[in-house]
Write a structure and sequence with these properties.
CATH architecture of the largest domain: 3-Layer(aba) Sandwich
Bound molecules: pyridoxal-5'-phosphate
Oligomer: single chain
Strand content: 5-15%
Number of strands: 14
Distance between the termini: 44 Å
CATH superfamily of the largest domain: Type I PLP-dependent aspartate aminotransferase-like (Major domain)
Shape: globular
């Protein structure tokens, strides 16, 4: 088959692939524990359902403006004012089909061929592929000290004549790390000095633990108006309201940029699905306690995961400050993360995501968005599969496994 060079260079999303694999195994009755997931278990807020159902009940479901319905933009403007202290107008906002599409149209709007986008590693799996789809070159920056947060100098060292943007995701998928104020402030300053776009992917912004306050990059910006700024903030209803399937995200940025993004989106997909937009309006304008209750559940799950991992000799785990991911280092057991992840699925039916996909070998991404029971049992199984001192038998559901390997 004759496919484009681009199509041949883009790989499948490994996390979506893993979801399919887990679903197939479950359908076959396998006792799979999914620690690879990227979505909260809770249901969408009732206000979202009511908002969506009200539109569906009219049967009048039509195209919407390419950048989103006015009611959604109004709700996003309110959100931006409340959580970022920034007053913006509808011209500064575009709603898209998920944060993913907002980032994608943004990259299409700013990148010329071969221009570079810098982001710290480990990074969200989709960043390199999205930059490539937009014709750009991904430039991951790994901290020399082996940690999850590079220094501002390391980011600055990666800036070259082709650099167009820096992209930060904090709290971070996959490490769960919340970047320090010092780092974010330094990157904001660097981007403003060098006239680079700074894309703040705040998808997990509200899901932070240990009394942290959600980050606000605008605090560090010296650009006085949003229109003179190259700072773009990305958000979505997907994670904080457990509404991944509705596919609504947004970007807030300078008017000219948003207009260019809207033109691209209008040709690519038109506006996001109308029922989903009304669901997002319902969520954003509705009772907000669901976010806090999700956050508390996740913090508790994070604590369960950390205490289980602590009892696992040889595994090093940095305590996540947010998100629902942990990124432990398993290299003492196996350096090849794809091999290890495959092995854990084959032997003990636990789904994890190989660190290689996120730009860091030897690690596995393990989600704690499931139940505390799944986390406990999943880590028990992994321990059994890796630790030579574990007992010989393990029960997977009602199936008894005997260790037949070392
Ligand atoms: N950004 C990050 C860092 C993510 O982890 C995800 C989803 O996993 C997204 C963006 C995409 O969000 P959405 O589902 O709204 O497209």
């Amino acid at each position: 088959m004759s496919l484009s060079q681009l199509a041949r260079s883009i790989s499948e999303s490994p996390t979506l692939k893993l979801n399919e694999t887990a679903a197939l195994l479950r359908d076959k009755g396998e006792p799979v524990i999914h620690l690879g997931g990227g979505e909260p278990r809770s249901k969408a807020p009732i206000d979202a359902i009511v908002g969506c159902a009200s539109l569906l009940n009219t049967g009048d479901v039509k195209y919407t403006p390419a950048d989103g319905i006015p009611a959604l933009k109004k709700a996003i403007i309110h959100y931006t004012e409340e959580h970022y202290g920034r007053l913006v107008s509808p011209d500064h906002v575009i709603a898209s089909s998920g944060a993913k599409q907002s980032i994608m149209v943004l990259l299409h709007a700013i990148l010329d061929p071969k221009e570079e986008v810098i982001f710290p590693a480990p990074y969200w799996v989709s960043y390199p592929e999205m930059v490539k789809i937009a014709g750009g070159v991904p430039v991951p920056v790994t901290a020399l000290d082996g940690g999850f947060e590079p220094t501002v100098q390391e980011i600055a060292d990666a800036v070259g004549p082709y650099t167009k943007a820096v992209m930060l995701n904090s709290p971070n998928n996959p490490s769960g790390v919340v970047y320090s104020d010092e780092f974010v402030a330094g990157v904001v300053e660097l981007c403003e000095k060098r006239s680079l776009y700074l894309i703040m992917d705040d998808t997990y912004n509200r899901l932070v633990f240990d009394g942290r306050v959600p980050g606000n990059c605008y605090r560090f910006s010296k650009d006085l108006t949003i229109d003179s700024s190259k700072l773009v903030v990305i958000n979505c209803v997907s994670k904080m309201y457990a509404m991944t399937g509705f596919r609504i995200g947004w970007a807030v940025g300078a008017k000219d940029l948003i207009r260019a993004m809207t033109n691209i989106q209008s040709q690519e997909t038109s506006g996001p699905a109308a029922p989903s937009q009304w669901a997002a309006v319902g969520a954003l304008n509705g009772v907000q306690s669901c976010i806090e209750s999700l956050r508390l559940t996740l913090e508790n799950n994070r604590n369960v995961m950390m205490s289980r991992l602590a009892a696992f000799s040889g595994v090093r785990a940095v305590k996540p400050g947010g998100t629902f991911y942990c990124f432990p280092d398993f290299s003492a057991y196996e350096k090849d993360s794809q091999k290890l992840s495959r092995y854990l699925l084959d032997k003990v039916r636990v789904v994890t995501v190989p660190g290689r996909e996120f730009g860091r070998e030897g690690h596995l991404r393990m989600s704690f968005c499931g139940t505390a029971k799944d986390i406990t049992e999943g880590i028990e199984r992994i321990k059994w599969a890796l630790d030579p001192n574990a007992p010989n038998e393990l029960y997977l559901g009602n199936r008894k496994l005997m260790r037949d390997w070392q």
